[in-house]
Write a structure and sequence with these properties.
With 149 residues, the protein is of the alpha+beta class. It has one domain. It has three helices and seven strands; from the N terminus they run βαββββααββ. The strands form two sheets. It has a five-stranded mixed β-sheet, covered by helices on one side. Strands 3-4 form a two-stranded antiparallel sheet. A hairpin with a 3-residue loop joins strand 6 and strand 7. Helix 2 runs antiparallel to helix 3. The longest helix has 18 residues. The protein is globular and about 45 Å long. The two termini are 14 Å apart.
Length: 149
């Protein structure tokens, strides 16, 4: 982990697909096909895709209804895979499914940003870019790590 003075710059860019005027069902299908691109383990452009749904009906993943899941993850040499799993796949996921109510989107987002600000293991001049994609019923965060990761 890096100290605060060496923390990488994390840039959040928001893309609001709701402004396109397409129906939520068509938009969901378009983005689902788009996400298949990021599931390819040979790709090193992007590291992780997170999905958050306020309404579990709209989050079907691997045949299950989920409010939060990680479509694909890749830490490269920038962070420890065990730390990533403990932080997202165990701690955060269990907090969400064990809670009687869904945490707000901004709380989930802050935990994603916190991880990338505090758990990057190498010094990098290039920023970590997180694309936040807003759909009608879900939010996605697609993380692009620097080339040296």
């Amino acid at each position: 982990m890096q100290g605060a003075e060496n923390a990488p710059q994390v840039i959040l860019k928001t893309i609001d697909l709701r402004e396109l005027g397409v129906t939520s069902r068509n938009l969901e299908n378009i983005v689902t096909v788009f996400l298949r691109y990021f599931e390819d383990p040979r790709l090193r452009l992007f590291s992780t895709v997170f999905v958050y749904c306020k309404n579990s009906y709209y989050c079907v993943y691997d045949g299950e209804y989920r409010n939060f899941y990680v479509v694909r993850w890749h830490c490269g040499r920038c962070c420890n895979a065990d730390e990533f799993q403990r932080y997202f796949l165990i701690k955060l996921y269990n907090e969400i499914i064990g809670s009687s109510k869904m945490p707000p989107e901004d709380e989930v987002e802050s935990k994603i940003l916190e991880f990338y600000r505090t758990h990057i293991r190498i010094n990098t001049r290039d920023p970590i870019i997180i694309y936040k994609i807003l759909e009608t019923n879900r939010t996605l965060w697609i993380v692009k790590l620097p080339r040296d990761c």
